[in-house]
Amino acid sequence: MERPRNVRITFEPYGKRVEVERGITIFEAVTKAGLGIRSECGGLGTCGKCKVRIKDPMSVSEITKVERNLLSPEELRGGLRLACQTCVLGDCRVYVPPESRIGERKILEVGFEQEVPLEPAVRKIHLMIPKPSLNDVRADYERMIDTLSRILEARVWQCEKFDEMRISCELLANAPRILREAEWDVTVVLRDEEILEIERGNTERENYGLAIDIGTSKIVVYLVNVNEGNVIGVSSIENPQLMFGEDIMSRLTFAMRSHENLSLLNKVLIDGINATIEEIALKSGVNREKIYEAVVVGNTAMHHLFLGIETRYLALSPYVPVVRDLLSVRAKEVGLKINKRGYVVTLPIIGGFVGADGVADLLATGLHKSNELSMLLDIGTNTEVFLGNKNEILSCSAASGPAFEGGHIKFGMKAVAGAIERVFIEPETYEVKYKTVREEKPVGLCGSAVIDVVAGLLRSGLIDVHGRIREKPEVSRIRKVGNEVEFVVAWREETGIDEDITVTQRDVREIQLAKAAIYTAQIILMKRKGIKPEDIKKIFIAGAFGSEISVKNAIFIGLLPEVPEERVKFVGNTAIAGAKMALISKKVRKESREVQKLVNYVELSLDPSFQKEFINATELPHRDLDRFPKVKDYLTKVRN
Amino acid sequence: MERPRNVRITFEPYGKRVEVERGITIFEAVTKAGLGIRSECGGLGTCGKCKVRIKDPMSVSEITKVERNLLSPEELRGGLRLACQTCVLGDCRVYVPPESRIGERKILEVGFEQEVPLEPAVRKIHLMIPKPSLNDVRADYERMIDTLSRILEARVWQCEKFDEMRISCELLANAPRILREAEWDVTVVLRDEEILEIERGNTERENYGLAIDIGTSKIVVYLVNVNEGNVIGVSSIENPQLMFGEDIMSRLTFAMRSHENLSLLNKVLIDGINATIEEIALKSGVNREKIYEAVVVGNTAMHHLFLGIETRYLALSPYVPVVRDLLSVRAKEVGLKINKRGYVVTLPIIGGFVGADGVADLLATGLHKSNELSMLLDIGTNTEVFLGNKNEILSCSAASGPAFEGGHIKFGMKAVAGAIERVFIEPETYEVKYKTVREEKPVGLCGSAVIDVVAGLLRSGLIDVHGRIREKPEVSRIRKVGNEVEFVVAWREETGIDEDITVTQRDVREIQLAKAAIYTAQIILMKRKGIKPEDIKKIFIAGAFGSEISVKNAIFIGLLPEVPEERVKFVGNTAIAGAKMALISKKVRKESREVQKLVNYVELSLDPSFQKEFINATELPHRDLDRFPKVKDYLTKVRN
Fold first, then answer.
1. Neighboring chain B residues of A312 at a CB cutoff of 8 Å
2. Chain B contact for A176 (CB, 8 A cutoff)
3. Sheet holding A194-200: strands in order across?
4. Which tens digit of pLDDT belongs to each residue from B407-423?
5. Which residues pair with A231 in a beta bridge?
6. Range in A44-53, A191-200, A470-479, B591-600 the model is least confident about
7. Residues in contact with A132: Cβ distance below 8 Å, sequence separation at least 6, in sequence order
8. Nearest-CA distance from B122 to chain A in Å?
9. Looking at beta carbons, which residues of chain B come within 8 Å of A163?
């Protein structure tokens, strides 16, 4: 049989290039490229939404009946096609028009990670088993295991304990049929000592797993080829539990009211993840039944809710989790729709509100193996902070709120097309320059922009240390609407929403509270360790907005301590990156348990200085200006 | 929608009551009650054997066409119905008339066993766990495991791997509630590294398990306190699969016809065992939920049918089982109603038709550890023979038929009250002495008695070497009825059935075939090992009738080779004894896998001398009289 040759597709305007099997649809190729395309039918050819323009019409299949029905004659003449109907026959360039683009929400789906040796828990081994005969009356199972043992021995893969090999009764009951229908040519799916599945023929290459990061507000799923360690599909959704409250505490309170509520939170979460898995599987052309394992991370509350475990005691003093250890349970037990005998592994949690996502952050940054004293911040609705090195790590969690993700901000939004992501205020003229995501007309502000605005106002003397915006007649951008003062970032004529885009006094307060929470967490850990900011050799910043933030401005408003800027490194979504590392390497799973033991949890609210530190930190940059000597210098100059 | 209400059926004369779903047939209800009913068609409505009398005719469905065809007008008028045609609509009493009853026999429930160190797989450990506080915020699970570890370390129980401790997600979800309701005073149920249950308070003493022997015709269940190793309840039933054929081959043929048939054989078996478990639990006052493990043995076909595994390839050349190894699966997976997280362990099987029961026989007799060359016969509908010592064991299986258990014998019956179990025929006067079970009036003959009669007739010269009964005018006990000659064992006046009890010419033929099959099996194994009968230092005889047989007569008719009588030892039901040993000792489980490797299976039908040996062995005692020198001496004297 001829193997289909690969073709190269370039997606525009992304400039993303992907190599795929000849003959697959553009719809499938989009996913393989890690991009998204609008569709309501998932590629079934009924919605007509996945329009693309093919730049080399001779490199794709002919226009189908479906397309003639769903596209107008003008569209067809203009070279538009439906991605789900168009098969790629040769190298080509595909333009995705604005109306077909999704993922306009820019959830940061990728993260910095450490290189790890490929050693997935699930292995696929192709077997050619000798058929039974009167001279060879071994049982089906022993026959299979004997062949398997010989192959594994030949590959010199660690010391295998075949005596302990396990198989489910139900698979065993089907084994005789499968083996004979496949004429004894099968691929065995092995997870540690358990045989999870017997597939017909040689399917060694199709070995898939999932890495899942359950955040308080978003869920990211990676589909990974665990043989090769590469991500072949990415998908993300808002956490459907948002319906029951934006922050963790309100969900825990809801769960506490009745067992039904707890089950409901569990159910919507699992349903949401299943829908995401279905989508990613469809997009990538991978059968869900061929996914044998998922590694899941999330904060302690998400971890418990995912497993359907009681969360009552997380919310009540002394705030103890039910379980901290790494767990390995059947996917079926938690209701995850992958192979029916597949497994879900949850990485260990650290305690209180620092969960498995924190462990994954550490795994991905390698902080726990470092000699240098480093700090790691995973900024989100809850912000986890870690401080330490390979000898000991302190951790805590701060309820920073959603301001840095655009939540509770008047014109706040996620970092999607049209969101202003960077703002510069000219200190003399108060003129404003800004940059939007994908250079589109501004429609709102994302967290990094609000930080820039607050820093800019402070730098220009338009705001005082308490965060109060100063009204000045010569500054037309500052005005009072009703009772509230606000600063205009973009005038109505410039925006795509027929309105001025502003930062209000209340928005500034939100930012002050959020940055105070995060700064306090850092300073208390430093106190506990008895160190000063300059002792910290590296600060990793993880989180969904991470790569866009200005370090200078973050320090200027007192979100980060004053350290040399080059010590700060943005690492993106390290939670999912760490989960992926654990998915493809058993060594990393082992490491995750060691990481857990290395980390001590600090309950911030129990620290006697917490209250005072927090209040002092709400000032800009801080009540104790000596903690920010350079900012102090600058402000002193401006004031004089 | 209305849920079908349950109805109660009382089966008479057993006095057994069962609650079932309204609308099921009496045939199905019989199984649920753990009883049996005569049938040749398995409830298909073609044989007309499953007659019952309904005491409340208004509580069942109307008479069907099938019943009008298969029952006579008198029977219908007398209130007789077919169990498979009659659906239960309300509470009712059902009388099972004698001709429909199965399961009235004396099943040998105990067996010889080896003493083993108590080391059950399931352990219960009482814990007083420190409560959480602000100074001790360990997670519930870690808190429990820490306490557990300390206790186990103190007891110095082998090297435990706590890192690998497992727990089901569902138990974990309930753990916080259980722990707090019990005020942290709990007993943990541990099986290897898995926590199966958390019970309130100290329940260390209540640690129960089951040993289950699934025979072709009977099932025996032991309820065992695994802490102490003692049997606290015994129960047994006829194998409900008897409805689908008496012998293994007819059941395998039935199973082969469709997947539904296979499932049906599995279902009636599991239902029957569950009914037995329920009964034994009730009798012993033990909650089924407190039973955490069952060790199951049975021949290869029963083993596969119990697990719901395809049996097609056992019945077709080259006769390979699906699996031979020891299996450990969740009880739930096979449908066994013990604790929902409990386990079922099936001991390894040897191959072909020598199953886990054979392994248990060896464990119980210790043959596999002996220096002496020994032989073991487990006599039943299928007879397993083992020959060897600690260095190597040969095994085979002979289709001996049910004659020795009273089957296919005109007045044959199981060893129940009134069965003649011993017969002595005065060689000079031909007068007969006999002994019945419980000294009651004779109602039939059990296998041991038929052996005695054949031996007695041979000793008296009333039967020739070919098994032909000699008619002699002076012997009034020998007579011809129709075309068949028979020997009267008990005259009508003496019996409890208002009939003479006889052994017919056909009965003698049945015994000849059965003993020939068993002798051939023994002789072929001896040949393979190159030994003579006198080299065998011990012969163990296991089986349901074993303790009642006369060794002298067994040798005289050629069932056993001529060895000194004192070398023969009756060991009873060693299959269940071996299962019990494995239940209370992990060491024995390990041993069972070594036993399996030690035993080689010989397929008798493939032995070139099988045919000739079998035909020669049908003579009394054998065509080659020199194999039985003492019997030869005696017979020569009698003939002269």
1. 176
2. yes
3. A122-128, A185-191, A194-200, A166-167
4. 889 998 877 788 898 99
5. A224
6. A44-53
7. A138, A140, A143, B313, B318, B320
8. 18
9. 593
Q: How far apart are CA B83 and CA B42, in angstroms?
A: 11
User: Which of A308, A318, A325 is facing B142, going by the closest CB pair?
Assistant: A325
Tokens (6 digits) for A35: 């991009």
Q: How many helices (H) and strands (E) does chain A have?
A: 18, 27
Which of B173, B308, B351 has its CB closest to that of A169? Answer: B308
Query: Is the distance from CB of A8 to CB of A91 less than 8 angstroms?
Result: yes
SS3 B388: strand
Whether the Cβ atoms of residue A147 and residue A128 lie closer than 8 Å to each other: yes
- Note the Cα B128 to chain centre separation in Å: 43
Measured CA to CA in angstroms, residue A63 lies from A50, A51, A87, B522, B584 at distances of 14, 13, 10, 78, 72
Q: Give residue-wise pLDDT tens across range A255-270.
A: 999 999 999 999 999 9
Round to whole Å and give the CA distance between B480 and B457: 16
Chain A residue whose CA is closest to B328: A166
| Predicted complex ipTM | 0.76
Q: For strands A538-543 and A374-379, give the pairing.
A: parallel
Stretch A301-323: mean pLDDT? 92
CA–CA separation, B386 vs B372, rounded Å? 13
Contact status, residue B619 vs residue B466, Cβ threshold 8 Å: yes
- Between strands B51-54 and B80-82, the pairing is antiparallel
B309/chain A closest Cα distance in angstroms: 4
Distance (Å) from the alpha carbon of B527 to chain A's nearest alpha carbon? 20
Does position A157 have pLDDT exceeding 70, yes or no?
no
Given strand B166-167, what is the order of strands in its sheet? B122-128, B185-191, B194-200, B166-167
Candidates B140, B320, B333; nearest CB to A140? B320
Cα separations in angstroms, B272 against A362, A516, B302, B540 = 55, 69, 13, 30
- Select from B42, B34, B40 the least CA-distant residue to B265: B42
**What per-residue confidence (pLDDT) applies to B164?**
66
The model's pTM is 0.77
- Asked whether the CA dihedral B132, B135, B137, B138 is positive or negative, the reply is negative
